């Protein structure tokens, strides 16, 4: 059975095609993504209206490229992200998916985006057991307890303000390093001293929330540091600022992720989202997981960032378990809860 997935919750237009075998084995046939990231660069972050328009322009071409690559004319099911995400962006992908499903006469599945980030784990390696997922991107920063792919998840914690990737992007902007900030800060940090500046680790006191994050104070601390240096005429080392900022982010993320695994007795920590590409995050997560006897799973980079395959993977798992399709009247929900893997309507 051929399952096609459409992703459009943020700035990536993705179409993925998966072959679901009778025994539940999944084979990726196509994974095409167009990103509007460069169109947002001069604004320092994703502009929802620009993202929506870009989805509209890219949907047809990306769909045709994915079908051609997979050698498929008509899939047996069409899935799309219905939330969480940007309202207008979600509407474009979900509307397209419903239109394709209606035209082809095949069922439609309205899928949770965050479940997609988790589902890619089953495309590489063993089936994901009971685990904790740390999802970190420009849009999300969450710790989720996962029973299995396609099952309702439980949110253990999330950011109270900026997402981890957003913090990278904002710090990059104030250092004049451009957008997106993650890759350039990661590169410069490698040449800096991560202990040079003691930036704050928010919500790490005993009395603080165990699983929530906050990054806006850290961003402000970096701004204050740079402003003070300018005022006093000191030359700063951008490399040291990057390394120290990155250490503060990754220290808290990995400490809380391992703690969450221990709290819910999970043997596996799964990383997802664009920030999962970060070299220090991976290094520190590996060190701390090994010390705690936890297995770390990091999907390959194209599967960490937003794509259509992740949506097809959730739908394929649900179809394999006999889930009913969504009604074509089902809406999109920018604030869709993690407890809902499939919106049936
Ligand atoms: O998942 P993604 O491609 O898109 C969404 O946010 O939906 O993630 C993009 C985010 C950006 O904030 C970018 O700065 C960050 O991921 N990022 C990184 C790295 N590569 C990308 N952050 C830290 N280190 C990296 N190497
Ligand atoms: Zn995402």
Automatic annotation (TrEMBL):
Fetch the Gene3D superfamilies from UniProt.
3.30.420.40
Return the EC number: 2.3.1.234
Q: What taxonomic ancestry is recorded?
A: Bacteria, Bacillati, Actinomycetota, Actinomycetes, Mycobacteriales
UniProt GO molecular function: iron ion binding; tRNA N(6)-L-threonylcarbamoyladenine synthase activity
Cofactor(s) annotated in UniProt:
Fe(2+)
Q: Which UniProt keywords apply?
A: Acyltransferase, Cytoplasm, Iron, Metal-binding, Transferase, tRNA processing
Enzymatic reactions: L-threonylcarbamoyladenylate + adenosine(37) in tRNA = N(6)-L-threonylcarbamoyladenosine(37) in tRNA + AMP + H(+)
Q: Which domain of life is it from?
A: Bacteria
Protein name as annotated: tRNA N6-adenosine threonylcarbamoyltransferase
Q: Which GO terms describe its biological process?
A: tRNA threonylcarbamoyladenosine modification
UniProt domain Gcp-like: residue ranges = 27-312
Q: Which GO terms describe its cellular component?
A: cytoplasm
The UniProt function text for this chain reads:
Required for the formation of a threonylcarbamoyl group on adenosine at position 37 (t(6)A37) in tRNAs that read codons beginning with adenine. Is involved in the transfer of the threonylcarbamoyl moiety of threonylcarbamoyl-AMP (TC-AMP) to the N6 group of A37, together with TsaE and TsaB. TsaD likely plays a direct catalytic role in this reaction.
Subcellular location(s): the record lists:
Cytoplasm
The UniProt record gives the binding positions of Fe cation as 113, 117, 306
What Pfam families has UniProt attached to this entry? TsaD
Q: Where is the signal peptide?
A: none
Family label: Belongs to the KAE1 / TsaD family.
């Amino acid at each position: 059975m051929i399952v096609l997935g459409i992703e459009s919750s943020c700035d990536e237009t993705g179409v993925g095609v998966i072959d679901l075998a009778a025994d539940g084995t999944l084979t990726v046939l196509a994974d095409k993504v167009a990103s509007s990231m460069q169109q947002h660069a001069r604004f320092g972050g994703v502009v929802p209206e620009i993202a929506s328009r870009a989805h509209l322009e890219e949907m047809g071409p990306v769909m045709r490229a994915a079908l051609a690559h997979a050698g498929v004319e008509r899939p047996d099911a069409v899935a799309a992200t219905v939330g969480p995400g940007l309202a207008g962006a979600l509407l474009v992908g979900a509307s397209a998916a419903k239109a394709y499903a209606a035209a082809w006469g095949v069922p439609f599945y309205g899928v949770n985006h965050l479940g997609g980030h988790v589902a890619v784990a089953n495309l590489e390696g063993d089936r994901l057991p009971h685990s904790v997922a740390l999802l970190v991107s420009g849009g999300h920063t969450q710790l989720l307890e996962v029973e299995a792919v396609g099952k309702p998840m439980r949110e253990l914690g999330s950011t109270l303000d900026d997402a981890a990737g957003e913090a990278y992007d904002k710090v990059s902007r104030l250092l004049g390093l451009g957008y997106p900030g993650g890759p350039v800060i990661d590169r410069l940090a490698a040449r800096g001293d991560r202990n040079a500046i003691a930036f704050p680790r928010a919500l790490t006191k005993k009395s603080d929330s165990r699983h929530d994050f906050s990054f806006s104070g850290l961003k402000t601390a970096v701004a204050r540091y740079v402003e003070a240096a300018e005022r006093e005429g000191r030359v700063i080392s951008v490399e040291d600022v990057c390394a120290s900022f990155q250490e503060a982010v990754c220290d808290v993320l990995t400490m809380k992720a391992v703690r969450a695994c221990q709290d819910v007795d999970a043997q596996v920590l799964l990383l997802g989202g664009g920030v999962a590409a970060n070299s220090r995050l991976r290094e520190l997560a590996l060190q701390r997981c090994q010390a705690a006897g936890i297995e770390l799973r990091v999907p390959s980079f194209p599967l960490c960032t937003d794509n259509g395959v992740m949506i097809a993977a959730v739908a394929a798992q649900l179809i394999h378990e006999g889930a009913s399709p969504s009604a074509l009247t089902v809406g999109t929900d920018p604030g869709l809860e993690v407890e809902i893997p499939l919106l049936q309507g």
